[in-house]
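Example complex used in Figure S2.
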Amino acid sequence: MAGENWGMIVDVDKCIGCQACVVACQSENNIPINEEKHFNERRAIEWIRVERYWEGEFPDVKARFIPIMCQHCGDAPCEPVCPVFATYRNDEGLNVQIYNRCIGTRFCSNNCPYHVRFFNFWEPEWPESLHNQLNPDVTVRSRGIMEKCTFCIQRIRRTKRTASRAGADATDEEFERSLDPACVNACPTETLYFGDFNDPESKVSAMKEKESKRDGRAYTMLENLGTNPGVIYLKKIDKHAEDVAHG
Amino acid sequence: MIPGDFQLQRPSRKKLMLLVLLGGVGLAAFAGIVLVAIFIISAWFGRPVIFGFDEGPAQPIAFPHTRHVEDLGLDCTFCHRNVEKGAAATIPSVGLCMTCHITVGDGLAEVEKLRATFEAGQAIDWVRVHRVPDHVHFVHEAHINRFSGTKQIVDDLSTGPDQIRLVDARKIEPSARVGETIDVAASQVCTICHGNVGAMTTVSQVRPLKMNDCVDCHRDNAAPTDCTTCHY
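Predicted assembly (479 residues):
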């Protein structure tokens, strides 16, 4: 069970901002429905969000998209501030949130530089017709606890079980679709890649090695904070980027 | 008598009676509090000590496990078909019951109830006996696979994949001894947590199934104890 270092590579160059990952995540992980008032109160819950930035002036305007989810930091700022150890880095390289331990201090959310931790200010509610669409493999978080992206740990667990039943390894290619988190599955342009950075033969390891070279595109978000994220971004390929002052 | 020495005044009879009365009331209140506390604590541990209600809940159809398991020798996996393949053991559909009961069991009141449900195209609203909280993801498959097969009986605290602890082996085979090997069928593994359901007329919970129960067993069997093994 132990020994992996699950991580993700986000190729920003491919992202078209379609929000399919957001929808997939919402339905996979029993995230309550965000209404307009929740956004107005800054209390909407989105484990993955696509941030949009406009660049340039009309008519020469470009939209830039970047999907942002929990970075699963190696040195996570959220972990040491939790008074009850409800969040910690487990031996699979995941920054996990234990719902039944959480007492809702919200320290972790305040200490997270990426704003990817969300607090349940209300008891989550779904319309009656949607009660049977809830994913039974994921806990429905009640009011007063923190939640965040888990890299769809329920899928990792399930794939490991399926793989061990077949006498195979969960990281084998045939289980790739089942191992990948919902956002990776849903992405139409293959922006997101998921895998084990500790496995030198995995696709993400190869990409990381290739893109970390001198002329590579790899970067991590807010690198100067030293959080050592488990999510690696590949920057956009843009011929005109050099012309723009902040490109 | 030394001057200034303290001398206890014998209280008046009236005062004495009052003290006795107050003491009695206090004692009764204390006993009441202790009783309630024990009741709450024992209920929390899942083993009511004083008010032992070991009987399981009444089911809509009084399904006799004894008849099916002890008398007919059916395996648990014959009806609970998903137990080796997934998280939930699953309760058989009415249709599965009817594969036999379309011909078997004429004139039995409970079988007639079953047939009526089948005719009406409805499901049976069984009362759930074993329930873990929503934030616990128990997977039957992993536990069945861990304990089924040929296992060597040991008395150690950390068992390997081909070993089984004596306490668990005793639940499957009461005469088990350390050092022997035991062939455990998938249907026998159920006994470790569910007790001998085959001998129960009404199914009841035999183990507390609280987190310490899970973690103790996980530690003893060298199973992962990371929180996210079950909580996610």
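Residues 13-44 of chain B form the longest helix (32 residues). The beta strands of chain B are 149-154, 163-165, 181-184.
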